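Worked example

This section walks through a single chain of length 243. The input is the sequence exactly as stored; nothing has been trimmed or padded.
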Amino acid sequence: MSWIALALSAAAGGIVQTVTGFGAAIVMMLILPSFMGMLGAPAIVQTICAGLSIPLAIRFWKKVDWKACLPPTVVYMVFSSVTIFFVKNLDTEKLKLVFGFFLILLALYFILFSKKLKLKINWPTAVVVGAVSGVCSGLFGIGGPLMALYFLTATDGQEKEVYIGTAQMYSALTNILNLIIRCARGIFTVEMIPMTIVGILAINVSKLFGLKILDKLNAELMRKIVYAFVGIAGLITVLQYYL
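Given that input, the structure is written out below as tokens.
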């Protein structure tokens, strides 16, 4: 039963991330901790996500906006890695609740006022977004939503494939780093490989459906879908606190 749940959640996550640029980990983390625990589940989820983001990053390699991608990604990596080592003494559940409400309000703001929003894409902004996202990733395992909004703004006016390529390159780089850290600390083990392979196969099969959906979307509709899923991610985070 656990193998079926893994495959189905990975498949659903693959469609979501291919279309929105993030979200596979959020979908899978709704299911996997119930039978794999909060230590093993993130390790497998991160590896499965790497199995999706790396092929997508390669597919959209020529579309990546490196100036938008690298600065916040590097900052994200630093803050995410550091936060992991200081998270033990914090009440992450209450912080996670606040973060969930923040995502909901942020999504509503972007939906209502995105056309009036003029976010400057420069080093200070990249540092702030990368740092906040990295800390959130270290605390809650959720760092994608804020980065997605940043990349969406940074690639505004370009092809939708530029946003997808940039977001997936960020995801690939951070997933690789997190996998290396988890392997070094013995969190991702050899015993996890079979289930990880099943998840990677499922997520890449569903990617094909996600790409078909992506082809039919115009840039404006894709932006609205991303905004909506940021709100959904926040709602899921809040519900997890109360359930």
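What to look for: The chain has ten helices and no strands.
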